[in-house]
Amino acid sequence: MSQELLDFDVIILGSGPAGLQAAVHAARAKATVAVLGRMERSSLFKAHVENYCCMDTTLKGVDILEQGQRQAEKFGARFFSMDVVSMNRDEKGRFIIALESGEVLSAWAIILAMGISRNRLNVPGEKELLGKGVSYCVECDANFFRGETVIVVGDESAACSGALHLLLVADAVHLVYSDLKVDDRLRYQVEKSGIHLHPGSKVKAIMGTDGVTGVLLEDGQVIEGRGVFIELGAKGALELATKLGISLDPATMKYIETTKKQETNVQGVYAAGDICGPPWQMAKAVGEGCVAGMEAANYAKHERSKNT
What we know:
By secondary structure, the protein is of the alpha/beta class. It is 27% helix and 24% strand.
């Protein structure tokens, strides 16, 4: 039976300042808006702000974010505090996004505002074996490990959905985690799959010289494998960009390239905030979010009218 779609004009990935400002402007432009992601992942969440225009007191980042969500909801935006596990495009050009809860959303335009991933294991062997068996992107590199044993490290949706994906190509998949922080549905899928689970575990070192041979856990256990996928959060910019064919900046291949209208090279996809590169300032994120929200809303309404 096909999954019923929750239809929107614009879907925003990320609920930091860029995503919230995009939501406010898109919703005020009379677009239907969904905002995905967990607010606590924003780099602003635990920060304090004292250098933002027209604010003469120091404010807690969490207060700014919560007020931003209330403001966006007042204009009609709907929030889903969960992660994306897959994103595709249908024959009409709509983006189809599956959430870890099992809900499936569609939209004519999306805005990528997830910030950047700074999470690394910071263990011996990680840096040395990057590209030699160590990867931060399952969808990018899974096929290089067809028929091999692989290890996924992480507690959240990217690790779980990545491990499930790897079951399709790898001979064996191990998931190393402290405590799964995912929706019950995704947890059930992982626990009932053929993934070898290592709960309450942490990686002490990645083993190998010319290539990965396995990982050493803090309890002394060794898990042998040819690949280690480090997935320490939600699906990141690089993975989603790769999936959609979005161009990254050629100098670093870390950030998404946009026009002055916050457009990417893929029609219907916009980006704003830290995901577009430095400086890491709320003022920049809010400005780009404003532009992205208005542009995405106009694009989505135009596409919707063409297809109705």
